[in-house]
Amino acid sequence: MNAPISSSELTALSMTEAADAFARGEVAAEALVHASLDRIRALDGKVNSVIRLEGDAALAAARAQDQARSAGRPLGKLAGAPMMHKDMYYRAGQVSTCGSKIRRDFRPTVTATVLDRLDAAGAMDMGTLNMAEFAQNPTGHNRHFGDCHNPWNLAYCTGGSSSGSGAGVAARFFTAALGSDTGGSIRLPATLCGVTGLKATQTRVSRHGVMPLSFSADNVGPLVRTARDAARFMAVISGHDPKDPTSAREAVPDYEAALTGSLKGLKVAVCETYFCEGADQPVLAAFEAALAAMQAAGASITRVKAPSLKAINAYTAMVSRVEGAAIHANWMREYPADYAIHLSARLFGGYAMPGHLYVEGLARRGPLLRQFVAEALTGFDVVATPTVKTQVPTLAETDIDADPANWHRFMAVSANTRPFNYLGLPTISIPCGFDDRGLPVGLQLAARPFAEATVLRAADAYQQITDWHRRAPKL
Amino acid sequence: MEPSLVLPMMEMIRTWSGVSVPNAAARHGLADHLALIAELEALRGSMVFEDEPSSFEAALRDCQEPAR
């Protein structure tokens, strides 16, 4: 008989550690969920990551998992792992606010395919998480449910739009969370909160039952502690879904089996064009240190240029803003005052963009993807960039509602993540250091389409030689 | 000072979409379009007659990693 595991030891487990410990019979699912619920109730008053806690339902599901294990029934890959998800994944009959006033009482009639797949894998869903209103800001501000606070320093941004997902995983409230990523909304909170976040290839994961923001650029993916967690999570949610005709039919590989733990032979392109221009010095220092560590472990580092990025960046802004404006047009006419200032201000600009340029942006997407791959991924396995060029900003200095002059600081947060949504490439963000104020810095790795296994392998191998991802904020 | 394009753009949006400017931050955001317009101006002529939106999914498939 093993010694009892304390509550703090349980919440310190990563998703795969928790699921593996449960599968080995070392911990009960009920104990894992209890520990998470206790920690949330004690500390989320500071962070504000949760919108709705479903404690009783989660405990009942956990007891069912414990009984299944006792009876010797097969366990899912994620059985026992406590999770919560951004409040934009529909569960039939349950309120999904999308972080908004407009949908405060919205009850969908369908359940998101990704939730169905996570349920089938035995994940413990404990409720829904704070987020940017309609997933439309990169900082984590929310006027309706309150701003989400960075667990490393409560005055600072969490990153958005999956703010509660990043903050809650960092705070050890739960082991994993779904985020969504249209311009960086998984990778930004992953970076600013010091956790791991993966945006998959466009079309890789079903979007059925998920609130839309931009048809061309929306993605579903996990925020977790480690690349191994992301690999197992992705194996559960990836693959074609008949309910989402846009989802890809490419086979889903065994992502965890691809984790060799080695950087030997990995060819890394460092695209300094655009991604490093104007970056803050502490960010560049952490980025260069990460490259040096990878090189010392056997990776090759080559500096490349990608002239295509100028066009990519311009069209990125065009496509996602026009699509967001179209989706919100009825509410922008009927309930403009129900939006936060920063959101209606962003949406408004989308109505000014000419239709022919939107079509041009879509038409150039394929050719520009081919061009970027030729420039930055031919002969290389991954492209490396800082995930965010700037140091983590405060909530106050990116608050457009208080002062429109904060617009540029607000928009700058997602400068390095947006291009990969337009390109549709699989991209991961992992912690690669801390700045002089004790706030995290992120390393972004992108690969060719459907090469999630490659970015996961590189990220996991980096995490084998560093401990940034193991550091936890003190709340 | 607010760029001269802001007021006509506001009027165009109201006419085409029936959406009125919601706040001062929205005007600030419209003024920010000058930079984007300049970026797109530099790209004029890059779209060719045969380009079509559906080429993106084909590019995703074609640009996958070579078989190892």
**How many strands in all of chain B?**
0
Taking pLDDT < 50 over at least 5 consecutive residues as the criterion, the unreliable ranges of chain A are: none
The poorly predicted ranges of chain B are none
Strand order of the largest sheet of chain A: 4-6-5-10-11-9-7-8
Q: Tell me the series of helices and strands of chain B, N- to C-terminal.
A: HHHH
Tally of separate domains of chain A: 1
Radius of gyration of chain A over alpha carbons?
21 Å
* Beta-strand residue fraction of chain A: 5-15%
Coarse shape of chain A? globular
Strand content of chain B: under 5%
Structural class of chain B: mainly alpha
Tally of helical segments of chain B: 4
* Biggest pleated-sheet summary of chain B: none
Secondary-structure topology with pairs:
The complex is a heterodimer of chains A (475) and B (68).
Chain A: H1 7-12, H2 15-23, H3 29-47, E1 50-53, H4 55-70, E2 82-86, H5 113-120, E3 124-129, H6 163-170, E4 177-180, H7 187-193, E5 196-199, E6 220-224, H8 227-237, E7 267-271, H9 281-296, E8 300-304, H10 309-327, H11 329-334, H12 341-350, H13 355-363, H14 365-376, E9 382-386, H15 407-412, H16 418-423, E10 427-434, E11 440-446, H17 452-465
Parallel strand pairs in A: 2-3, 7-8, 7-9
Antiparallel strand pairs in A: 1-3, 4-6, 5-6, 5-10, 9-11, 10-11
Chain B: H1 6-17, H2 24-31, H3 33-41, H4 55-62
What labels describe this entry?
heterodimer, A: alpha/beta, Amidase signature (AS) enzymes, 8-stranded mixed β-sheet, 3-stranded mixed β-sheet, 12% strand, B: 68 residues, mainly alpha, elongated
